[in-house]
Every structure is written in C-alpha cells, then in structure tokens.
Amino acid sequence: MYKHILQRELTLLPDTVRARAPKRVPTVLSHNEALTIINGMSGKYKLMFSLLYGCGLRKAELLRLRIKDIDFESKNIFVFRGKGAKDRVTILPNGLVAPLKSQIETVRAIHEKDVSEGEGKTSLPSGLARKYPYAITEFKWQYLFPSSVRCKHPVDGYYCRHHLHWTSLSKILRKAVKKSKIYKHITAHTFRHSFATQLLTSGTDIRTVQELLGHTDLKTTQIYTHVIGQHSSGTTSPIDRMF
To answer: How far apart are CA 84 and CA 210, in angstroms?
Structure first.
C-alpha cells in the first residue's frame, strides 16, 4: 500500500514487531498410499512421481533435470540451481535405474529426430547458449522430460525444446488421486514430504535427510519429526487400552 498507492517508503522503527508466518504441518502419505497413487499412473508420469517420492525432489527440480544430471555409476542425481540457487546431490533408487535408462533412450530418439530436421537445440538459461554454443545441441544437455513441441526461447530468441510444463503433472496427479480414493490434500510436493518422513521413520539420521532435501536450516527438516509424532517411540493413546 505504501509503495504502490501512497508512493512512499515505509520506514519501520527499530522495535517494530514483524508478523510471523504460521508454521504448518505438511500433509504426508504412508508408503502404501504413495505407491497406490504412483501405480495409478503410467509411462513417464509414473517415473516422474517415482522420482519425487524416491529422491525427495521438488517439482521444479524434477522438470529441470537433464541427461547429464543422472549418474548411474555412483547412483546419484545431481540437482543444480535448486531452491535458493543451491546445488546438491540426492540418491538414485535402484528400482528406477531401468525406467530412467528407457526414458533416456526415448529422449535420444526425440533429439535425433530434431537434429535430422535441422534443430536439436535445448533450452538453456539466458546467455549460456552464447557462452557455450556447443552445449545447446549436445545430447547430454537435453531435458530428461522434454516438451512434446518446440518453442521460441523467451530471451535469446532461438527455437528449442523446453521441458514439460508443470500443469501436465497436476492433471495426471488429480486423476490418480481420484482413482486411489485417498482423501487427503495431495500435491506434487506431498511426495517430497513423504520421502522425508519415510527416511526418518526408518531411522535415517536427520542431518542426512537435511542434506538430501537441500535444507539450509536444520529447523526446516525438524518439522518432519512433528509429522511422525510419537508413534515411533511407542506412545499410545489411553483409549487403546480398552481394546
């Protein structure tokens, strides 16, 4: 209001108390619930949500994965320029190796077809195409989940193949959740929350979970200990003694 309507800067006093955003406990899925929803999908979308749940990726991080980011030898997935422009490494589940290799071959076929048509460029951050002109057509720089159509780069102007749009994931997820009859508020980010809680429940060190999720502050990761509750420590409700 001050900046755009009154057109003046708001000067706060040193002892001004700022309102704090309320801390919400995230919705999580049990292992069986997560698998039920994922198994309600097929093809690349099943693989994509398997990566969200199996690697703890954010939706944007998943969509921005490139061929070069998958390391089958070390079983790692490299996440570059994640939230806060931070890089990190997360785990590559053994069960996703075969589907990932199959998806890479699908991308190879798409790329080779583009090259044969005189294209084959991928979408790179603005200015990077000029700095590394060879990278724009190299296979390793192609997106792991490319768009079905080529489009014009919004800044540099060349025609390229970008990654899938996030709305396609939302549509598939809505259908799978409806089919599963699981009545929770579920988004793509719910699978990342579920990844964290499953690791903590199985006894994974919280610092390890912090690194896999890419959290700067351990307090952010500790929210998942509240989600787990006291069930893992053997605490039971007094009413359960009746049954």
So the answer is: 15
